[in-house]
Design brief:
Length: 77
């Protein structure tokens, strides 16, 4: 998520792919949803793009991270 917020959607996509591949092969195998790291990094990149390609301030980035975690919590439970 931070990679997408700081560097944009392309970097967020690359980091999300790395995280998803890592989870698939090393953490839990195909049972664990490996698309979540990719989704959240792309969401961070979209937030970066919506902010006119400037890094978000501390408070907006924290609020974005909290919102992402609440959505993740809601989907996981």
């Amino acid at each position: 998520m931070v990679a997408g917020l700081v560097a944009g959607p392309a970097v967020g996509l690359a980091v999300g792919l790395i995280g998803g591949i890592h989870r698939y092969f090393w953490v839990a195998g195909p049972v664990f949803p490996v698309h979540w790291p990719l989704f959240w990094r792309i969401a961070g990149g979209d937030a970066y793009r919506l902010n006119k390609e400037k890094v978000l301030g501390i408070i907006p980035a924290m609020l974005f991270a909290v919102a992402v975690e609440f959505v993740h919590l809601g989907l996981a439970c």
